Amino acid sequence: MTEIFDLTTASRTRPVADEALPPIGAALPPALENADWWTDEMVARAGIPMLDVPIVSVGGGMGSFVTVDYLRVAGGVPVEDIRVLSNISHPWQTYEYLTRVSQLPRNRRIRSDSASRPDNLWGFPSYAIQEAFQDKTLKPLKQVFLEPVFDDFYTPLLGKVLDSMRKEADRIRYWDMLVQGEVRTVRRRVGGGYFTVLTPHPTKSPTQNNRPTGQAGPVDRPIAYRCRDVHIAVGYTGLRFLPDLQEFRERYNDYHHVVNGYEDHEHMYESLRRRPGTVLIRGGGIVTAAVMQRLICDRLNFGAQTRILQVFRTFFGDKHGAHPWSKRPGSHGFAYQGFNYPKSAWGGQLRARMLRREGEDRVRIYDEIGGTTTPLRQHWQHHLSRGRKDGWYHAYQGTIDNLRLDPEGKVLATLHNDDGDHDLNADYVVDCTGLDGDVAEHRVLGDLLKHGGARRNPLGRLDVEPTFELRGSANGPGRVYVTGAASYGGYFPGVDTFLGLQISAQEVIDHLAHRGLCRKMGPMRSTIEWLKWARGRQI
Amino acid sequence: MFDHVIGAGGVGEQTRPRTLSGHGVLVRAGELVLLCELPAGRGRQIGALLDTVAALAGEHPDGAELSNRLTSLIDATDPADVPSFCAYGPAGDGLAVVVHGDAELVLGTDGDETRFTGQPGVTVVDRVEVVPAGPVRAVVEGARLHVAAPPLAEAQPAPEAEPATPEQVQRIVDGADEPEQTTPEPTVDDSIPADNLVLGVYCRRGHFNDPVMTYCTVCGITMAQATRHQVLGPRPALGVLVLDDGAMYSLVRDHVFGRDPGTDPAVAAGRAVSVPLRDPSVSRVHARIVLDGWDVRIVDNGSTNGTFVAMPGEPSWTRVVPGADVTLRPGMMVALGRRQLRYHTHRAQSVDFGTLQNRRAQGHSAHA
Amino acid sequence: MVPTILGRIQTRLFLMAVVGGPVTALITLVLPLSGPWGPRYQATFIILAAVAVIGIVWECVYHLVMQWRWEKDWPTLFGLFTFIPEGILVGILAHQDLIPGLPGPTPGNAFTIQFLVVWLCVWLAGQGPMRVPFIRWRFDGGRVV
Predict the structure, then answer these.
(1) Chain A neighbours among B 51-110 (CB < 8 Å)?
(2) How far lies C130's CA from each of A504, C62, C136, in Å?
(3) Nearest CA of chain A to the CA of B113: how many Å?
(4) Which conformational region is residue A60 in: left (phi greater than 0), alpha (psi within -120 to 50 degrees), or beta?
């Protein structure tokens, strides 16, 4: 039976015809695959070794890291009771990739608040204080003091954020909890709790010490983690490549004229530094801003003569909003906001308001605060206004489609707006339209919808309680918690942000404590733990 | 387990595939032959077809079994999704034939022809009594193929258990004798000349990808949850070379750089793109960029002033030993005399893409 | 911390008591006040209580002002510089002996020193150290309970 799992190492001698184009993920024996509930015997019969761990965290990215940090620090849960099941080797791997390709190297500042520290539960001392202390300068403190009215928001350097996370990971012994592999499914166990099935990656280094002992067979056989609680933070299902981009790539086998802001597109900057050209940018968010800033810097530093055309689907000419007394600033197409959500989403009025809303009511607030925004940063705003004057920057309202190559190797795109349709000509098209959060596309999440009792919320993601417990999936003493992007649309809006992950983790840990499964951290304990953090003491 | 390179009538190219204007793939595995069209977006189905042939050739090279498996493959999905193909292999003392979709197979017998078309439905003939004496001719979507000799007359023992490499599976589409060649999309023919098939994986939506990708390079969906089952498929563009004047070359085939690269046989044969560099410091045929599997390599052609590579931030250039090759890493700079070019790829999807590439390289050598 | 109305009031009362109390106790020792210690302490603590109680009204005003902000946030700077209207109001009341329980009119210089020191300490505590023992505080809009 178990050889069915062998897809990761399947040699090409194995006929595909046996399965006739298998749906991905159909690699479990049918008896298991089709069952909503598994018994220990079923798993044993399938020859899958079982390991008992009270809590597993599926994902291994930022969401898992923050939640495990809370479990260890606030909940006092020992290392042996937690396993992080992950297909990446360190929690910030995906995050770092996305920031790097979207023009944020380690020495640049990310769009995050000074006190949003994934490595520190308390957000104290904030990044600004740390930076002031390390670099012996008052500038960050001055900026925090004046923000956002008299200065741009202070934001931390990516490199410092990542370094501090590595330090915290060492401190909480994250690496001892990490098991690398592909999680196939989470299923309810008859008798309570869950089975989380993982196919470990082939051993990558001799230091990998998380293999179950006494396990027979090669290391890439699946393992079933028999656990009481499952935490899932698998992030986005992928990058959102627009249909036009996909069509263009398939039609022309061309991956360099039309690119996504979240993939490596250095070739574009490289070429534009050496010959004039036109870039058509789609979107008005933070990635757009980063791409634009890069193009502007290349203009200033290397004399690049790049024309920038920008297409906004929603063009904000002025401040806007549902209530006359409270409007979001905007101009020239952009909507301005310091961070992804209004600041009060992380604990202020907006969070409190959202907690009380259900269904359509909640969707309405999401609509109100939604839309792509970018922080109003003085540097590139100044240059954009010059660009408007000098004619190298032009913004359009509308949508574009029908991307095609003209005989000269340029891209033609049709712009649709109120003025009708007309063609735009560019050397490159950059899509800055974000990430794909469709939960059904994700194997584990889709499986939970199909077999785990999970439901969708009004925005189509997974429906969670205010405690981030996945509705409909409780099983005896066990619970599934979902945090991060998959829980967007719930009672707390800022789920896919640093601080949002911490807020979610806080709720999860509080719920665990309420269930009597970990300690509740009071003021005294909190202070003691903070002191340990401050001294860098391993726990 | 694939047989050596196909001997295709009218092409005569034995060791390297040719890039031609049609749009199909030919696989000859032992005595089993498959010709299949290459429509966009059907990578998964194409891979499954190729895989079936490859697998069968390794265990049981029988034509009847081949048609069995191929038809069950069609049955298992929407037949309209399966690209047109024809396939045949030895069955007893005859041939078993399966033709699907807009494909046609013509068996030449003594002065006569027997035609099979897939038009009305799938045509399956388990055993053609006659042993074809003339050339076997197959047409799929305008790509016309002649197989010089009937499989039975020239049955050869397959080489022993040598793992198949993509290079052994050839794509040959003969555009030379293609009278009804309409010009559908001028750009398509020029830009999908995937010389080789490569081993790759399919994303959940059926796009063919480099196995080390994190996100599908066509639709962006995460690859983490796709099975890692590697199958053969048409190689997409691997990236671009950006020249120091800003010119860009898409890596869909080999490139030859030099003062006079037209003299290079690969260029003359139409297998490589020639990039003339007018600079006295550059040799006539200075260096070539060779696509090997998913890797892009630079080979110095014994140039006078040498070929050098460096990663940004590296303190010095490293000379490429003439005749040897260096696998380019994303962002790597190449110096040819006083000219420079740089390799970039959309496949640089993780911070440790280079490491993944190395691991793959080690995997390759372990096989060899 | 981005406050809610309930959070504002709770934070104000809590910090005034927990930080303002000890600071007042200490600073009374050095303030330019005359007379026996009893009335001195009575004066400073009544002032502290007045700032806290009148502050409840102020917080409602701030909350209203905040509604005009899109993000419904309360910048650091606002939190500090609101000492100006509040200080002036309590100062006038204290000077006019209008605050019940005061042993007499408070000298301006003593009031100013006490008010500014307490305000600064409370503000600083709210900027971060408060989060150390009360980890949920910032997520709950400043609520302590």
Answers:
(1) 51-52, 54-56, 58-59, 69-70, 72-73, 75-77
(2) 20, 21, 10
(3) 31
(4) left
At which residue do the structure tokens 């409840």 appear? Answer: C56
Neighboring chain C residues of A510 at a CB cutoff of 8 Å: 136
| Six-digit token string for C44 | 């400073």
Inter-chain residue contact A24 with B225, CB threshold 8 Å? yes
Name the residue among B58, B164, B250 with its Cβ closest to that of A254: B250
CB pairs under 8 A between A and B: 183
The rounded mean pLDDT for chain B is 72
Q: Is A403's Cβ below 8 Å from some Cβ in C? A: no
Pick B280 or A202 by higher pLDDT: B280
Contact C1 A144 (CB under 8 A): no
Residues A56, A82: contact at Cβ < 8 Å?
yes
* pLDDT tops 70 at residue A2: no
Residue B153 CB burial class (10 angstroms; 0-12, 13-18, ≥19): exposed
Question: Minimal Cα distance from C63: which residue of A?
Answer: A349
pLDDT band at residue B261, thresholds of 50, 70 and 90? very high
B201-219 as b/e: b if 16+ CB within 10 A: bbbbbbbbbbbbbbbbbbb
- Which residue of chain B is at minimal alpha-carbon distance from A409? B187
Least Cα separation, residue B194 to chain A (angstroms): 10
Classify C12 in phi/psi space as left (phi over 0), alpha (psi -120 to 50) or beta: alpha
CA A271 to chain B, closest CA, distance in angstroms equals 4
Q: What is the DSSP letter of B335?
A: E
Q: What is d(CA B332, CA B357) in angstroms, rounded to the nearest whole number?
A: 14
Which positions in chain B touch A249 (Cβ < 8 Å)? Answer: 217-218
Residue type, A192: G
Q: What is the mean pLDDT of residues A181-203?
A: 90
Closest Cα in chain A, distance from residue C103 (Å): 37
Give A510→chain C minimum CA distance, Å. 10
**Residue C109: Cβ-neighbour burial (10 angstroms; 0-12, 13-18, 19+):** exposed
Check whether B134 has a pLDDT greater than 70: no
Identify the pLDDT of residue A65: 97
Dist CA A180 CA A182 (whole Å) = 7
DSSP assigned state of A31:
H
Q: Residue A338's pLDDT is what? A: 86
Q: Do chains B and C touch (3 or more CB pairs under 8 A)?
A: no
Residues of B in contact with A266 (CB under 8 A): 330-331, 344
* pLDDT tens-digit map of C97-131: 889 988 888 888 999 999 999 999 999 999 999 99
Question: Which residues of chain A lie closer than 8 angstroms to B351, CB-CB?
Answer: 93, 96-97, 100
- Please state the φ and ψ torsions of residue C43, each to the nearest 5 degrees: -60, -50
d(CA A123, CA C138): 9
**Which positions ≥6 away from B104 have C-beta within 8 Å?**
B86, B115, B116, B117, B118, B138, B139, B140
pTM of the full predicted structure? 0.77
Cβ–Cβ below 8 Å for C75 and A352: no
Instruction: Spell out the residues 6+ positions from residue A97 whose beta carbon is closer than 8 angstroms to its own.
Output: B214, B349, B350, B351
Per residue of chain C (145 residues), give pLDDT as tens: 899 999 999 999 999 999 999 999 999 999 998 889 999 999 999 999 999 999 999 999 999 999 999 989 999 899 999 999 999 999 999 888 889 988 888 888 999 999 999 999 999 999 999 999 999 999 999 999 8
Q: What is the pLDDT of residue B50?
A: 78
Q: What is the complex's ipTM, to 2 decimals? A: 0.93
Query: Do the beta carbons of residue B61 and residue B30 sit within 8 Å?
Result: yes
pLDDT of residue B63: 83
Do C and A count as touching (3 or more CB pairs closer than 8 A)?
Answer: yes
